[in-house]
Amino acid sequence: MTLKTLTFHRLGNGAAAQFSSAPPLSLYVHLPWCVRRCPYCDFNSHAVAGPLAQDDYIDALLRDLEAELPRVWGRPVLSVFIGGGTPSLFEPEAIDRLLSELRARLPLLGGAEITLEANPGTLDTARLEGFAAAGVNRLSLGVQSFDDGALKALGRIHDAAAARRAVQVALKSGFERVNIDLMYGLPGQDLARALADLDVALAFDPGHVSWYQLTVEPNTVFYSARPELPAPDALADIEAAGLERLAGAGYRRYEVSAHARPGQECRHNVNYWQFGDYLGIGAGAHGKLTLAEGILRTAKYRQPQAYMTHAMTGDAAAEQRWVAPSERAFEFLLNALRLTDGFTWRQFAERTGLTPLAIRPQLEAAAAQGLIALDAAGARATVRGFELLDSVLEAFLPEAAPA
User: Could you tell me which residues are beta bridge partners of residue 47?
Assistant: First the structure.
């Protein structure tokens, strides 16, 4: 079926339309400190240089949030994600205070998903139980590998034994959901070692596994001193075998690198991928809000001290920009096509303010190549389209702006 046979309301010549409703809203909170920066990490993280000023930073987070609130009055919040850095460096009492203050300022939905990222090298039973008591109901463990040699090559502060202990304790500490974050394509890794890593994770039977390839990003140690990584053919073999292993264990691949038991999908990240809205507070945090005037993206000051100084004056945003109508389709598809279920035509129209007719030619061309599947409800990437997703998305890049 092609888009020509589907029924859409044509909006003039395909120009931007009024948004019919606000999308779901999430909150991202960035805690930027870690024990040391890993050589592959390109996130906004900063090695701890002394005692953490946890209360001062939380004060800044709350002032940052208060400055954002007029844009989202009355909108319920479906999820909170505390990322980093290494958020588990903060004391459970500090996380308890943060979540209590957030609840006092935002209408969190009943049963809202509240995620904390954690490093196995910073955890013990008391801390994990404290985080659960504070209201964290989803824990994302940055294990990366259960192999001591791989962990050393990655510059992680924990060893394989600590990783195993952290998973065991997390599964017993009262969290409704536990995710194991695992990499493949590591320095010196072959197929057997990659699958052995995955088998250890699956033996714990977590609700969710994030399994993704190590990539070398600019502005990292690995970029300037590149380690020896598996060749492309070896990576393809690892990916194919790992996906088969995950599916055989009962995990559904619902996004490029996310695999979950039924009902265990990460609601916060799904909202990102469905082009939902999110407030971003904290050093370097990004946000996206759908407002009457259009779609606004924000970015906060990256350096922690600069962020705290600006946040306390009510002006933590280092950048604010409106997403041009010509950019909305690409930004939507950049996220939505990562989902195995793809998107619906209604989602596209409601989240972008555009008619689906605006992307008709590119979708039909991709469908003709077997990269996209179309039906009356929406569109999704095929198995081959998933493998060539970057190429699929190139067709939707907006034209270069005139000089």
Answer: 34
| Structure-block tokens of residue 9 | 């309301």
Taken in order of first residue, the domains within the chain and their CATH numbers are 1-17+325-398 (1.10.10), 25-272 (3.20.20.70)
Confidence of residue 18 (pLDDT cuts 50, 70, 90): low
What value does the mean pLDDT take over residues 341-349?
Answer: 96
Three-class SS of the chain: CCHHHCCCCCCCCCCCCCCCCCCCEEEEEEECEECCCCCCCCCCCEECCCCCCHHHHHHHHHHHHHHHHHHCCCCCEEEEEEEECCHHHCCHHHHHHHHHHHHHHCCEEEEEEEEEEECHHHCCHHHHHHHHHHCCCEEEEEEECCCHHHHHHCCCCCCHHHHHHHHHHHHHCCCCEEEEEEEECCCCCCHHHHHHHHHHHHHCCCCEEEEEECCCCCCCHHHHCCCCCCCHHHHHHHHHHHHHHHHHCCCEEEECCEEECCCCCCHHHHHHHCCCEEEEEECCCEEEEEECCEEEEEEECCCHHHHHHHHCCCCCEEEEEECCHHHHHHHHHHHHCCECCCEEHHHHHHHHCCCHHHHHHHHHHHHHCCCEEECCCEEEECHHHHHCHHHHHHCCCCCCCCC
Instruction: Please tell me the distance from the alpha carbon of residue 145 to that of residue 193, in angstroms, as a whole number.
Output: 10
Among 119-128, 219-228, 239-248, 316-325, whose mean pLDDT is lowest? Answer: 219-228
For residues 164-182, give the mean pLDDT: 95
Cα–Cα distance for residue pair 46/83, rounded to 1 Å: 13
Q: What is the pTM of this model?
A: 0.93
pLDDT digits 0-9 by tens, 242-268: 999 999 999 999 999 999 999 999 999
Asked whether the predicted pLDDT for residue 402 surpasses 50, the reply is no
